[in-house]
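Journal club prep, notes for RB
We'll compare a predicted complex against what the paper describes. Inputs for the nicotinamide-adenine-dinucleotide case:
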Amino acid sequence: MEVIITGGQGFLGQELCRHLLKKGELKTSSGVMQEVQRICLFDNVAPATTSGVNAHPKVVIETGDLTNAETCQRLMRPNASVFHLAGVMSGAAEKDFDLGVRVNLDGTRNLLDACRAQGASPAPKFIFTSSLAVFGETYVEPGTPVGDTDKIVPKNTYGMTKACGELLVNDYTRKGFVDGRTARLPTVIVRPGLPNAATTSCYSGVIREPLHGVEAVLPIARDLPHPVTSTRALIANLVILHDATWPDRVDRALNLLSRPSSLQQLVDALYEVVAPAEHSKLGKIVDKEDSFLSGVVRGMGSHLSHERAKELGMLEVPNMATVVREFLEDFGEKTVVSNKRQRVA
Ligand SMILES: NC(=O)c1ccc[n+]([C@@H]2O[C@H](COP(=O)([O-])OP(=O)(O)OC[C@H]3O[C@@H](n4cnc5c(N)ncnc54)[C@H](O)[C@@H]3O)[C@@H](O)[C@H]2O)c1
């Protein structure tokens, strides 16, 4: 079977590709396990590296812009499963409304239309990555977690575009054009590389920067709980969502498993994992709260419940010390501490 990953050069696109190459098989829309023979990594940026998963013989690199409907039509293949990960992040979409709407909403519709044009039966699987940012104004009692079926009233443009995408996936599925499933992602930590344009970028930076001997600046209040997940749990759960048998209902969205964590809890986990003798090597952590950004994070819903994800047997998010250890194992090559291991392929 074939897989198309949009946003294939991004953080999660590359990790998902690595996971699928290792796993080797997925459940097709006919319900049978089949070998993954080809993975197309589609992105509007060219690969930063020609090694790693980009060099794997089963991987095909396609460069193009999903806001171009013809490009999406050309990209699509009969019966291919689509993991739609490309998108403009929360900070960038809030700064540039037109870009956010064009990529996150029009681009998603272009892809869904391209799947529809294949006319495949049974309909191909389409995994859409939404976000907990769809929950802005909530109507649950304070302290009550926000569940899968609570009303989605985003408080930013990013969340609005993701909420629209969820509705598109529901209706394209109801019409039989795709077999859609929407995962509402919490913040995935620890993201490697440079900070990105997400408002919640510091939930990774607070671990990543000190481990590289670099100062981490925290624009969000340290005590604010925010739902996070580990990279490994997130990727495994996206694949469980793909392979699952979805109950017969119009709503195709669920909250992926998450664990509320404050920046202070992440700092504590960092200092627990790094040996005391090496604490002095860690980069400084500096508080510079930006009340606007703290407000945006506060408006995202701090506690979620995950009834549907649990029904599907998804993986629990590990504790934060394990999250730090996983980062050191998977991406720790250039960190300043000794307890790291280089990942094999
Ligand atoms: N990482 C997280 O914490 C998180 C949390 C919630 C939701 N999500 C969602 O998960 C998805 C993947 O996240 P990520 O962290 O890998 O993001 P990322 O920014 O690392 O990757 C997104 C990729 O999309 C590509 N892209 C942007 N515009 C495009 C366009 N017009 N055409 C083609 N490609 C385009 C970018 O070049 C980038 O490589 C996103 O849709 C994001 O909204 C992520």
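Talking point for the session: The chain has a mean pLDDT of 94.
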